Amino acid sequence: METNAPKPHPSPASQPKAPDFYCVKWITWKGERTPVIMQSENGPCPLLAIMNILFLQWKVKLPAQKEMVTSDELMAYLGDCLLSIKPQDQAEAVQLNFQQNVNDAMTVLSKLSTGLDVNVRF
């Protein structure tokens, strides 16, 4: 038996969030053409702050003609940067601690585009 009842729509919370788009502003920084990611709306965005620091330190590069970038692209660049870092100290304890820090950072990555929950205790 077929009914004409409307099918329920998934709730907005259950739908995957579309990536945010950000404008890229190119500036001259210490004699080099360097990208700066601009906010599309007000609010906390640790991802943009972290990425702009990495761009200003030239630890991450964007293609020269890039004018727009998504939050997913920025998270991929950040993930690649994290995975490219290696500690200089070869001691096993240092290596294990470093690996745990990278794993913790990768876990938080998806939360960086909207802000972080911070529980400050005094």
TrEMBL record:
Biological process annotations from GO: protein K48-linked deubiquitination; proteolysis
Sequence ranges assigned to domain MINDY deubiquitinase in this UniProt record: 21-122
E.C. no: 3.4.19.12
Family under the similarity heading: Belongs to the MINDY deubiquitinase family. FAM63 subfamily.
InterPro entries found in the cross-reference section: MINDY, MINDY_domain
Role: Hydrolase that can specifically remove 'Lys-48'-linked conjugated ubiquitin from proteins. Has exodeubiquitinase activity and has a preference for long polyubiquitin chains. May play a regulatory role at the level of protein turnover.
Enzyme class: hydrolase
Pfam families the UniProt entry points to: MINDY_DUB
Any one GO CC term of the record: cell periphery
Name of the protein this chain belongs to: Ubiquitin carboxyl-terminal hydrolase
Keywords, ordered alphabetically: Hydrolase, Protease, Thiol protease, Ubl conjugation pathway
Originating organism: Micrurus spixii
Gene Ontology molecular function: cysteine-type carboxypeptidase activity; cysteine-type deubiquitinase activity; histone deubiquitinase activity; K48-linked deubiquitinase activity; K48-linked polyubiquitin modification-dependent protein binding
